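I have been asked to look over a protein record a colleague put together. Alongside the sequence sits a line of tokens, each denoting a local backbone shape. Please read both lines and tell me whether the tokens look consistent with the sequence. I do not need a full report, just your reasoning and any doubts. I have pasted the whole thing underneath without changing anything.
>
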Amino acid sequence: MKNLASIGSIGAKLAIVAAATVGGTALVGSSVFASLTATASNTSAHSVTSGTLKLTEAASGVGGLTAGFTTAVTAMAPGDTINRFIDLTNGGTLAGASWTLGLADSAVTKLTTDAVNGLSVVVKECSVAYTTGTGLCSGTETPMLTTTANALLSPQALTVVAADLLPGALTHTKFIIALPASLEVTTNGTLPPLTIQGLTSLLTWTITETQRAGTNTVA
């Protein structure tokens, strides 16, 4: 009969061999997932800046041409034409693609909804500032909006010279507001039904610019 000490010694040896085997297997298994990696990056920061699209509207700076849309129109009669001179500045860093004129009337009267007897608008631009006092263009005048329908509350596309779409461009415009000639009869001091007389519209003129098309730069 073997003594207990020998049996214990053999068991201890077997345990050491088993532990070594398990440890070796673990080491072999972990080496399967080991790999080399390498990275590359720019050594100085790559700057990416987004552009801006800005269009601002202001009364013409030329004396004697009124204060633009802040100058009210009063006592307008059928057949009258009123001019308002506006400078538009493309003050962003991006070029535009198109302009659209929108007109809102917070009072909503027949002046802006009557397609026959209501107001009409024509827009022109001059290559230089319009002339003091006369409002004439001494440079090249180009139509931007011609012969509108008298109902003004739908957006109107403006024809824009290419140079006006560039960043920093200044565009000198003339808005020609007309009330077409019409025939109404006032009887004994009473205005006729659906009259165009005695109305006040409160107008907001908005020029909307869309940005240029996106580009794919290779260089």
About this structure: The beta strands are 55-59, 81-90, 96-105, 120-126, 141-145, 156-158, 170-178, 203-211. Confidence is low (pLDDT under 50) at residues 12-20.
